[in-house]
Amino acid sequence: MPDVGRAAAPGRTAVPQTPAETIPLQRGILYGPVLSRRLGRSLGLNILPDEIKVCSMDCRYCQYSWTGMLSTQAALFSGFLPAKEQVLSELRGELERLKGAGTPPDTLTFSGNGEATLHPDFPAIAAGVVSLRDTHASGCRTAILSNSTTVHLPEIRSALGLLDDPILKLDTAREATFKALNGPAKEVDFGALLGGLRTMGGNLILQALFVRGTVDNSTDEEVADWVRLVKDIHPRSIQIYTLDRGPADRGLTPVPGDRLRAIASALGREGLEAYAFV
C-alpha cells in the first residue's frame, strides 16, 4: 500500500531541513530486512562491491555520497562483483532462515551500492531471485530501484519484466538538468534512456526525487515538462519524494510536502496514478 506520509500540524508550516550526513556503503550481498515506506519489510540485494559505489550516475542527492566508479563499462569493475552463484546461495539461506523464524520479508529489492543492472549477470541473477522467491517466500514481491540508464537494452528490459515492481528513475525531462542533477557517465545517452522507458511503459513504476538548492527540478517549468513526458511514457504508477537522508551535495534542500502533493495532483489530472511520499 502506498505511504502518503504525514501532514503538518494545523496552522503550522513545516520548513524542510537538509537531512543528516550520507550513510556508509552496504556491506555484503544481503542487508535488512529494513522498513521501507514504499516496499514494507525489504530485504536488500547488493550485487555490487562493498568497497566502492559503482554506478552510471553521480547523483547529487545520493545517500551513499559521490560515486567512486562512474561508468557503464563492466570490464572496469567486474572483478569486484559477487558471482551469481554466491548471490543466489546467500539469498536461499536467508530466505530459509526467515521462513523458519516466521518473519519473511515483504519484498526482495535490488538496490545497494550503485546500479544493479550494471552487473553482467543481472538477467540471470534476476531470474534466479524470482525462482527462489517462488520456492521459499511465495508471498513476497520482487523489486528493483534502478536509475534507468540501461533500460534501452533489450536483455535488461526482459530481466526487469520478471520483477513484480521495477521502479525506475526519471527526475527531469530536461537533459541539461539531468546532467546537472544526476551526473551521468559519459556513455549514458539521455535519448536512449527515454526511449527505453517508453518501451517499458505500463510495465514500470516511475520514481522521481525533487530537490531545491544547487539544482532545482521542482520549478513550475521543470514540472510541466516532466509531467508531459511522464504522460507520454505512461507508467503503471509514479512515486514522488524528496530528500529523506543526507545527500552527497549539502547544497541541496528538500521540497515541501505541499509541493510534492501538487505535483502528484498534476499527474492525477492527466489520468496517471501518482503517490507523494512526504
Identify the notable features of this structure and list them briefly.
alpha/beta; eight-stranded mixed beta sheet; globular; 31% helix; disordered N terminus; TIM Barrel; single chain; two-stranded parallel sheet; 12 strands; 278 residues
Describe the 3D structure.
The chain has 278 residues and is of the alpha/beta class. It has one domain (30-276): TIM Barrel, CATH 3.20.20.70. The chain has seven helices and twelve strands. The chain has helices spanning 84-100, 122-136, 154-160, 175-182, 190-200, 220-233, 257-269; strands at 30-36, 40-45, 54-55, 69-70, 107-110, 141-146, 165-169, 205-209, 211-213, 237-241, 252-254, 274-276. An eight-stranded mixed β-sheet has the order 1-2-5-6-7-8-10-12. Strands 3-4 form a two-stranded parallel ribbon. Mean pLDDT is 93; it is low at 1-13.
